[in-house]
Amino acid sequence: MTDASPSSDAVGNVALVEQFWAALARRDFDEVGAFMAPRGHYVDVPIMEVDEGAFGPEETAARLRLGLGPLLAYELHDGPIVASGDLVITEHAETWTWEEGVSVRLPFTSVQEVRDGQVHRWWDYLDLSTLMNAAPAWWVEAIAGGYK
Questions:
Q1: FRET label pair with 94: which of 24, 71, 120, 139, CA 20 to 30 Å apart?
Q2: Which CATH number fits the domain 8-146, given the four candidates 3.30.30.10, 3.40.50.720, 3.10.450.50, 3.30.360.10?
Q3: 6: number of CA atoms within 13 Å, CB side?
Q4: What is the pLDDT confidence band of residue 146, given thresholds at 50, 70 and 90?
């Protein structure tokens, strides 16, 4: 019989990811960026090619600021977290509110690779049509302009 208890690395990685999500819930984009390794890679998978995205703390913070900064309100809804070795997988939802009466609850699955106390890879998976069907035109235009 094998021991099914998580390794101390996995437990530490989950704790780091929980702090990461707490910072995002506060929309503290610089703090979220600080969790990233110098070449840590952040990608919204349905939106861009996997060789694109943000690299490192500053680009990660800037990308988050572009998408979430203009929102009137943002709420993160915790979900289950599973860890195996360096990988931490989180299922959660986020409620994005652009203006009164214009909001959406987006389900996410996030895969993060954590090594030496830093996030080396953060890939978010979401249903792009759910987001785009709810987003106002002004926000879509601002995002498109910033992703060039």
A1: 120
A2: 3.10.450.50
A3: 16
A4: confident
